[in-house]
Amino acid sequence: MDSKKLKIIVIGASGTVGKEVAKGLEDSGHEVIRVSRNSGDLHADIQDKKSLENLFQSIRNFDAVANAAGDVKFGTLENFTDQDFAFSFGSKLMGQINIVRTALPYINDNGSFTLISGILTDEPIAGGIIGTTVNSAVEGFVKASSYELPRNIRINCISPTVLAEAEDYHPFFPGFIPVGAWKVAKAYEKSIAGVFNGRIIKV
């Protein structure tokens, strides 16, 4: 994609990362549609495939989807329940996979998807088993699907470390150097406006 003005859907736009992504893309001259569960220009829940289908059908003819939504449960292996795994897989993994699947008929040629994983793929922490598992699966999906997406559509994944703004999480990431959400947003811009495909962009 060139430097033309793009029509970009930002999902999770009310969150710490999503807010910065939307702002940064607007500051670069792009048209941004903010999507969250309960706020923003439009509403959608990534755990609800039908709501995603309704979202993309209502917009159509967009150039990129940037996702900053998706949750996982933290805890110990001994205490995790089936519901903890099901929720995490349904949210951060299948939620993101379904974003791609449901948006594909409506995204423009040469468009792009940008998903999110996290540092736990490479550097597990205590209590982060589900996060490591889900992030690894998201990255696997991105790498594999990059070979099969039609119409020169690209897909990448942003893998940030713990956010500077997420101070409540810092004790669980001892020795990790936090990164500002604005810097993570720059990685999204690199994915959307650049030429990368099938890349895991670490921040």
TrEMBL record:
SUPFAM superfamilies: NAD(P)-binding Rossmann-fold domains (SSF51735). One of its GO terms (molecular function) is oxidoreductase activity. Keywords: Oxidoreductase. The keyword tRNA processing does not apply. The keyword Nucleotide-binding does not apply. InterPro entries: NAD(P)-bd_dom_sf, SDR_DHRS6-like, SDR_fam. Pfam families: adh_short_C2 (PF13561). CDD domains: Lin1944_like_SDR_c. Belongs to the short-chain dehydrogenases/reductases (SDR) family. This is NADP-dependent 3-hydroxy acid dehydrogenase YdfG. It comes from Chryseobacterium soldanellicola.
